Amino acid sequence: MPELPEVEVLRRSLDRVLPGRRIEGVVVRETRLREVVDVTALAAATVGRTIERLERRAKYLLIHLEGSSTLLVHLGMSGRLTVVPAEEPLEAHEHLAFLLGSTHRLRFRDPRRFGLIASWPTGRLASEPHLAGLGPEPLGADFDGQRLARAARRRRAAIKLVVMDPTVVVGVGNIYASEALHRAGIDPRRPANRIAAARLERLAEAIRSTLEAAIEQGGTTLSDFADGAGNAGYFQVALAVYDRDGETCPRCGGTIRRVILGQRSTYYCPGCQR
DNA sequence: CGGGCGGCCTGGAGGC
DNA sequence: TGCCTCCAGGCCGCCC
Q1: How many angstroms is C1' of C4 away from CA of A230?
Q2: How far is C-alpha A215 from the chain's CA centre?
Q3: Non-local CB neighbours of A62 within 8 Å, separated by 6+ positions
Q4: Å between A201 CA and C2 C1'?
Q5: Which residue lies nearest B4, CA-to-C1' measured?
Q6: Nucleotide nearest A157, from its CA to each C1'
Q7: Nearest nt to A155, CA vs C1'?
Q8: For A156-185, how does the pLDDT look when each residue is reduced to its tens digit (9 = 90+)?
Q9: The whole model's pTM is what?
Q10: Which residues sit close to strand B, CB under 7 Å?
Q11: Would you say A268 and A187 are in contact if contact means Cβ atoms under 8 Å apart?
Q12: Positions of strand C less than 7 angstroms from a protein CB
């Protein structure tokens, strides 16, 4: 489900309701997520603490708590994090919930269990195993065409795989990689080291503008993405190529094709992507 | 180090 | 109606 725009939309929605709330308890019904949840450590880091603010790093949601403790949440492919009334019945695959006072709970639901829940001292997040080694934020100041060009120069893999490599730039998953390459007019299969600097400049800009547009539209809901209040996104109607095999390219009128790169479906228009 | 691949899970869609 | 296969937005670890 979630790439950078969806996690950012989730962050913004939860940031309107969570700060100031106190975590009164944590209920864990299934510990086997992407990693086994350390219930003791999680409870020690969260219970009795007030939520201060929410941050996003790559596709990780960082919930900062008072007392220098941070909760890390990753949605994997099918994760959902929502605030629901306390009396709301348990959902299937609701593996974990944080009790917010006596009136609400923060529900984590994840059928495929590729998600992740962990905690880490706030001051030492730079050394948190999942966050250390991540590349620049695509919407931040330290990502641009030059940075992308430096990474592309020593890679002969397809440009789409390079753009999806989180050590190069974070947050770009399978949907937005296809969309950004279409926006930039670059064939996703093209070896990264055979693309001119000016075109990589254009690609960096396309990544940025695609992600920003998606955030503005509330993210992409293909099947199940929702923000913290359960609202779906709208960017799916603006997707130019993703999941549109055989349809007409909105820019040149060509026919969109689907190919496999790195075992992932990849969509592009042979008419206007070279 | 780069690059290719399999695996982790469940559910939904489509074919027969 | 079932049963089967394929596919899915992420990420990691293994191998060469």
Answers
A1: 34
A2: 11
A3: A54, A55, A56, A70, A71, A72, A73, A125
A4: 53
A5: A262
A6: B3
A7: B2
A8: 999 999 999 999 999 999 999 999 999 999
A9: 0.97
A10: A 32, 34, 78, 92-93, 111-114, 154-157, 161-162, 223, 262-263
A11: yes
A12: 7-12
Query: Model confidence at A265, in pLDDT bands (50, 70, 90)?
Result: very high
pLDDT of residue A224: 79
Is A53 in contact with A93 (CB distance < 8 Å)? no
Length of chain A: 274
- Using a 7 Å cut-off to protein CB atoms, list the covered nucleotides of chain B: 1-12
Residue A165's nearest nucleotide, by CA–C1', is C11
Q: Which candidate, A107, A118, A115, A97, places its Cα nearest to that of A44?
A: A118
Distance CA A231, CA A208 (A): 24
Active site members of A: 2-3, 59, 264
Cα torsion A71, A74, A78, A80: sign: positive
State in Å, rounded, how far the first CA of chain A is from the last one.
28
Tokens (6 digits) for A265: 């479906």
Q: Which two tokens stand for residue A67?
A: 């007392």
Q: What is the rounded distance in angstroms from the CA atom of residue A179 to the CA atom of residue A56?
A: 22
Confidence of residue A1 (pLDDT cuts 50, 70, 90): low
Q: Which residue carries 């479906």 as its tokens?
A: A265
Task: Please spell the DSSP secondary structure of A41-55, one letter per residue.
Answer: HHHHHHTT-BEEEEE
d(CA A2, CA A83): 18
For the CA of A102 and the C1' of B7, the distance in angstroms is: 41
Average pLDDT of A131-138? Answer: 95
Across all strands, nucleotide nearest A226 (CA–C1') = C9
The residue type at A118: A
